[in-house]
Amino acid sequence: MKKQTILTTASLAAAAVLFSGCGIKTNEYSVSADNVSQLRTYEGVKLNVGEFTAKTEDESHITCRLSETITTPQGESFEEYIKNALISELKLAGLYDSGAELTVTGRLERIYGSSVLGNAYWEFETTVHSSNGESISVKTRREYPSSYFAATACNNMATSFSSSVRKHVGDMIGHKDFAKLLR
Fold first, then answer.
1. Is residue 4 assigned to a domain?
2. pTM of this prediction?
3. CA 38, 128, 154 angle in degrees (round to 5)?
4. How far apart are CA 110 and CA 11, in angstroms?
5. Rounded to the nearest 5°, which phi and psi values hold at 22?
6. How many domains does the chain have?
């Protein structure tokens, strides 16, 4: 009986070590020269960015392979991270004005991260609304390299998040109807 208890305890301890993760933070957002360049074509426009909401409010982490938690750098929600990314791009392009009448808001309809070997990607779906009554829906899928090993795959998932959001913001401002939001 004592031997079985020791074996059970050792097995539970080993499982706890193998299947628990400390969590991996994503990178801080950094602006894209391409995004800023594209935004600078809208001369004379001043834009405010209002509230971004999400279908799943205040979600700030995704579990990777049941072992690691991928979280945003400051613990902010995914929708807040995307909002702040858009603001960063607009600021560098000289278009952001927190007092502007023209305001865009957003709703993160879906976020999904996969770390499966051979099929690793981030997927975002956001609807952006303008105070002028126009709106656009943007869906982005960005693949990244994965790995057979969970630690490597989850690290790749975390480090690819920021660049995937950068692509999503680029897809927003590159949307064929983005200019309609700015009228």
1. no
2. 0.86
3. 80
4. 38
5. -85, -20
6. 1
pLDDT at position 142 over 50: yes
Dihedrals phi, psi of 3, to nearest 5 degrees: -65, -40
Q: Can you read off the two tokens belonging to residue 84? A: 């702040």
In which residue are the tokens 């499966």 written? 116
Q: Which residue has the tokens 């979280």?
A: 71
- Residue range of the domain that includes 118: 21-181
Q: Residue 157: name the closest of 125, 124, 121, 123 by CA.
A: 121
**Number of other CB atoms surrounding residue 171 within 10 Å:** 19
- Is residue 10, in this structure, part of any structural domain at all? no
Query: Which has the higher per-residue pLDDT, 56 or 180?
Result: 180
Q: Does 172 reside within a domain?
A: yes
- pLDDT at 66 (0 to 100): 85
Domain-embedded: residue 12: no
